[in-house]
């Protein structure tokens, strides 16, 4: 039996940084090479970084700025947009919201969640599919315009990376992305705080978890994100404003029959304030996520039970 300690240990500098610039316009050989780099990183670690050529850094900055303005509002103003009143998980998540993860010793973040912005009279929304439908928009000049623009850009980047992973997995074009026409993908604006009284350096601000969706494209301006290695060590993800941190989520692990790995991560924030913006690339609400038959070896059973993409909402 191969001893697990003989496996190479991913270290900080081992989180690959992949330039996906040619994924849109490069020739086929170049696109194939990038897809293979992304796929190998997704298979071995489940975490990698990409240079986000294509998204205007000013737009990223403007999105942080407007998020910061929102989080700086007095509590009663933010509570007007409380997510608990939204039928489709949109709006403000206060500091007091109960955390899902057991090791969240000092859960001290607030968030604003939004998704595909469909009108009130959208037929799916009207017929009771409450996950679809309109966003909650704060009454804050520039918020809707800026954040909508960012959502559109990041959603396109998500599709691009998914398309490359289709290629890596040897699936026909559209095998994943055709199930993302009205996805339940969410953008989360996150604001962590740490008071000077919090001296416990071990405090975990967002507990260990895997992401539920296909993949996550995260931009952050502050350190704090940690990834678990195969030998159960936490390593820090470096901060690089020109890069997105990408990780595979549970949906894609199942869809790929375990070839791509959904890896645990957590946030230990040591700064007075920390901002990040994960975008969770998901499938459509009604997509049945089950291992693609061509990714199951002949004579073997699929490694996962099927589930509906929208089931956990
Ligand atoms: O804030 C971060 O860096 C990570 C956030 C995260 O993992 C999540 O929201 O699922
Ligand atoms: Fe996460």
From TrEMBL:
Cofactor: Fe(2+)
Residues in Fe2OG dioxygenase domain copies: 183-283
Family under the similarity heading: Belongs to the iron/ascorbate-dependent oxidoreductase family.
Catalytic activity: 2-oxoglutarate + O2 + 2 H(+) = ethene + 3 CO2 + H2O; L-arginine + 2-oxoglutarate + O2 = guanidine + L-glutamate 5-semialdehyde + succinate + CO2
Pfam families per record: 2OG-FeII_Oxy (PF03171), DIOX_N (PF14226)
Protein's recorded name: 2-oxoglutarate-dependent ethylene/succinate-forming enzyme
Annotated source species: Fuscibacter oryzae
One Gene Ontology term from the biological process aspect of the record: ethylene biosynthetic process
């Amino acid at each position: 039996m191969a001893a697990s300690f003989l496996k190479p240990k991913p270290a900080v500098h081992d989180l690959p940084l992949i330039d996906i610039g040619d994924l849109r316009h490069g020739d086929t050989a170049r696109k194939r090479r990038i897809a293979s780099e992304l796929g190998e990183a997704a298979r071995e670690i489940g975490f990698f970084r990409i240079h986000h050529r294509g998204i205007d850094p000013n737009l990223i900055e403007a999105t942080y700025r407007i998020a910061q303005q929102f989080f700086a509002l007095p509590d009663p103003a933010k509570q007007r947009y409380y997510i608990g009143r939204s039928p489709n998980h949109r709006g403000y998540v206060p500091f007091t919201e109960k955390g899902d993860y057991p090791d969240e010793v000092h859960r001290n973040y607030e968030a604003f969640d939004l998704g595909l912005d469909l009108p009130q009279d959208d037929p799916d929304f009207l017929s009771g599919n409450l996950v679809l439908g309109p966003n909650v928009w704060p009454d804050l000049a520039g918020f809707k315009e800026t954040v909508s623009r960012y959502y559109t850009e990041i959603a396109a980047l998500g599709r691009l990376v998914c398309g490359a992973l289709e290629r890596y997995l040897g699936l026909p074009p559209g095998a994943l992305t055709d199930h993302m026409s009205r996805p339940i993908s969410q953008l989360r604006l996150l604001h962590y705080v740490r008071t000077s009284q919090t001296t416990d350096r071990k405090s975990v601000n967002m507990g260990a978890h895997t992401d539920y969706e296909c993949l996550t494209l995260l931009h952050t301006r502050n350190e704090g994100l940690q990834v678990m290695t195969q030998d159960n060590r936490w390593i820090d993800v470096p901060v690089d404003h020109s890069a997105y941190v990408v990780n595979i989520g549970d949906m894609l692990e199942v869809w790929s029959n375990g070839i791509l790995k959904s890896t645990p991560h957590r946030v230990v924030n040591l700064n007075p304030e920390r901002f990040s913006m994960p975008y969770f690339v998901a499938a459509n609400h009604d997509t049945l996520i089950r291992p693609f038959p061509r990714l199951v070896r002949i004579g073997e059973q699929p490694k996962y039970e099927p589930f509906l993409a929208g089931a956990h909402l």
